[in-house]
Amino acid sequence: MKQQITCFLFIILTTAAMSQNKGNYAPVNGLKMYYEIYGKGAPLVLIHGGGSTIDVTWGRIIPQLAQHHQVIAVEMQAHGRTADIDRPFSFEQDADDIAALLQYLHIPKADIFGFSNGGQTTLQVAIRHPEVVNRIIVASAFYKKAGAYPWLWDFLAKGSFEGMPQPLKDAFLKVNPSQEALRASHDRDLHRMQHFQDMKETDIKNIKAPTLILCGDHDVITPEHAVEMFRQIPGSRLMILPGGHGEYLGELLTLSPAHKGDFAVVPLVESFLN
């Protein structure tokens, strides 16, 4: 009975949080950026992974996070409902877009939570726009190529649109039914990662925002690199969790079919943010 009541309450909270969705577009640096807002409280920006949408990365934990935060979930350039435009496609540009979005929303400072490619963007926000950052959470991300396993770079070197996971294609087309936009998104992401440039260690060491580093013990980044970032960023915190790339967040591709209920990482994140 207790388990049934818990599940019932979770469904109610999930429905209530998702019903607050205020999807809209913001003009930022020539881009019409799609974003959604859930809940109330201190602002928390969520930045998805490469080739993903809001739901792919964050759909399972937004209801939990929205209980204590004003969650601002975005879709970056060429992802989901945010169209691609003719300009550079880089983590630096993404960081500038996040800063411009916060200015548009009249939010002077926010916590930033980025997964995978979104984690690279989060690092760049802290480096390029420290004035808009309160705390950052960098999940399953790296700042240099050596931080990922060699198999990742071999996989990307042979990357093709046909090899893009079908669940990612389906999730994209669900919110943007354009095959042309989907292919552009894939090609942009692939090219960026094939030509990934290491961030400067001096920039990483100069990050002033309180930082939490997350990764899975079977992630695309090595645990050693997570520890290295933990050592490089002054006063940072580190959590290495069981699972693959984003499994601890409920990321769509690595979500365990057996998982039910809340994700244990969320209370740990809440403890860091508070």
Automatic annotation (TrEMBL):
Domain AB hydrolase-1: residue ranges: 43-159
Keywords: Hydrolase
Gene Ontology MF terms: serine hydrolase activity
Any Pfam family: Abhydrolase_1
Entry protein name: Alpha/beta hydrolase
PANTHER family given in the database record: VALACYCLOVIR HYDROLASE
InterPro entries registered for this protein in UniProt: AB_hydrolase_1, AB_hydrolase_fold
